[in-house]
Amino acid sequence: MTSIEKREATVMSTLLGPRVPAEPAALAARVSVRELAVRYAPDLPLVLDGVDLDLHAGEVVALLGSSGSGKSTLMRALTGFAPITSGEVTVGGVDVARLRRRQLRGLRAEVGQVFQQFNLIGRLPVLTNVLTGALHGAGPLNVLGTFRSADRVRAFELLERVGIAHKAKDEARSLSGGQQQRVAIARALMQNPRVILADEPVASLDPTMSAVVLDLLRSIARQEGIPVLVSLHVVPLALAHSDRIVGLRGGRVVVEGSATDLTETDLRAVYHGAATEEHG
Ligand SMILES: Nc1ncnc2c1ncn2[C@@H]1O[C@H](COP(=O)(O)OP(=O)(O)OP(=O)(O)O)[C@@H](O)[C@H]1O
């Protein structure tokens, strides 16, 4: 350790207090949710109630639940877009509820998001769409509206990674749904994300393309070590393309476990249970 490093270490330990043995990086959850409750307004009921969730490097976790069970709200809470009424949400060790607006922007820059409707800029070339992922960070756009060449190289590599580099110059709107979703994934990767949140990413795709996109997310999770949280409405897709399942019903986690161990009873708890409660 140099003398500067020693001085920094002393300052940090003064600021942070005695050193607590850290969890090994590979075991520490990238995302941790504890006893999360969300209420959108004081006069509205809880939308999430006592939710626990961990996301680890390299895993795909599928979020199941009927419409209105709180899947999107849980994802929004991870980026501070849903109010954290009580409980704790940490992303990369950062307590989301404590962040000020500017810090929240920083956090969002490190969270890759993939949506059902792709959210690309249709009239812009595919490569430019991927490059916009870099804008979340330091803003490498210069006054002429062009991007740094290093970013262009990286964006092209990411298009190769998702298998559509040959479409780099095409307008995004000219691509098929499956291709557009792969552009959206490349854009998310351009952010060098700590985690990827995919909210119903295959709801607009046919079964073949759904499998391609979910396979891609899984290979990214494994190869890049990025946890992926994906909400899905099609149970067989969740079973085939995720490592773990978290089932929400009425804002509570009612099922949590390995995708290979999910039983009919578990599924009933997630779906039929809700219907029984509502209509019974
Ligand atoms: N901004 C908001 N203000 C008030 N209530 C909201 C808001 N957003 C969502 N809700 C309510 O929270 C509940 C959960 O909604 P959410 O969108 O999280 O469910 P979901 O499981 O993602 O549903 P879907 O599968 O239909 O997308 C619903 O009752 C919804 O009406």
From TrEMBL:
Residues 33-275 form the ABC transporter domain. One of its GO terms (cellular component) is membrane. InterPro entries: AAA+_ATPase, ABC_transporter-like_ATP-bd, ABC_transporter-like_CS, ABC_transpr_PhnC, MetN_ABC_transporter-like, P-loop_NTPase. GO terms for molecular function: ABC-type phosphonate transporter activity; ATP binding; ATP hydrolysis activity. Keywords: ATP-binding, Cell membrane, Membrane, Nucleotide-binding, Translocase, Transport. Gene3D superfamilies: P-loop containing nucleotide triphosphate hydrolases (3.40.50.300). It holds the Pfam family ABC_tran. This is Phosphonate transport system ATP-binding protein.
